[in-house]
Design goal:
By secondary structure, this protein is an alpha/beta fold. 32% of the residues lie in helices and 22% in strands. It is built from eleven helices and 14 strands. It has a six-stranded parallel β-sheet with strand order 5-2-1-6-7-8, with helices on both faces. A six-stranded mixed β-sheet has the order 10-9-11-14-13-12. A hairpin with a 6-residue loop joins β13 and β14. The longest helix is centred in the middle third of the chain and has 17 residues. It is globular and about 55 Å long. It starts with a helix and ends in a 9-residue tail after the last helix.
Amino acid sequence: MTGNEAARRPTLAVVGATGAVGTVMLSLLAGRPDIWGEIRPVASARSAGRTVRVRGADVVVRELAPEVFDGVDVAVFDVPDEVSAEWAPIAAARGAVAVDNSGAFRMDADVPLVVPEVNAERIADRPRGIIANPNCTTLSMIVALGALHRAFGLESMFAASYQAASGAGQAGIDTLYDQLATVGGSREFGQTAGDVRKAVGEDGLGPFPAPLALNVVPWAGSLKDGGWSSEELKVRNESRKILGLPDLRVSATCVRVPVITTHAVAVHARFVQPVTAEQARAVLREAPGVAVVDDPAAGEFPTPSDVVGTDPTWVGRIRQSPDDLHEVALFLCGDNLRKGAALNTLQIAELLVGAAPTAPS
């Protein structure tokens, strides 16, 4: 590519390029459409000056500052909420469209919350120059539910998530590995009340309120009104906004499980129209960004260890309720660092500069 060719192509800034999701973004770009003239990695002063691989080349990470957005067409953010809240408006003021992966703007009425397979048209309505990326748990299921909603009209849903340790960041990953190293070598742990907690110690809980190794923890996020967690309310509020259904009945219970990467969700969804399991399968097989693996007799259904490192939302265990012909149950998995964060953000960025939509496959 000549310098003039690069100059005519849009510039992408990746803010938080050295973090867990930022690193995945940079790796994904190597296999995405070749539409960017410059990919500009950006991070805090602590990480600035490091070298990262960008499309096969070593590129120096720039320090986050207002001028770093000069000449940038799209700036994608994977940084904490408070950093996005400060810097995404600065990027927009310097002429870039900010695509934010934090929770800072998701419920802002002037910021569209976008999943390209579901509501891509919303990217055009961005009064603040910012587009938000949904929470990874919502993303794990909304691609599939969006397709079913278009076909049958979603009326309500009840969901239980099984969320990976990486959803709590690198601290969550490190904590699970440390706990497994402590208790994984003995068959005695887990047979007596509290013995795993005693073994890992209160200092070994990390970001979780209880041991995650050999355990499940029915909590993710922070405490909100009525005993709900912030993660559970995100599933409700974000699903309503993405689908354009402000009165949609949604109830979620979020559970942390001892898996490194990939969230799973069990969903019971009720529709306006009657829907059989085979009708639901047919719709999902044709839906962009969805892969169906559903043959329980052969032991075929999605699990996190099969799905990690892939891009689609994988769906199985599709069943019609025996008591309600309008209700379907399903189990789905999605890599929370890929489609759940990095990939969805890049898909939005590509749409913004006119690239043809490319769904996970």
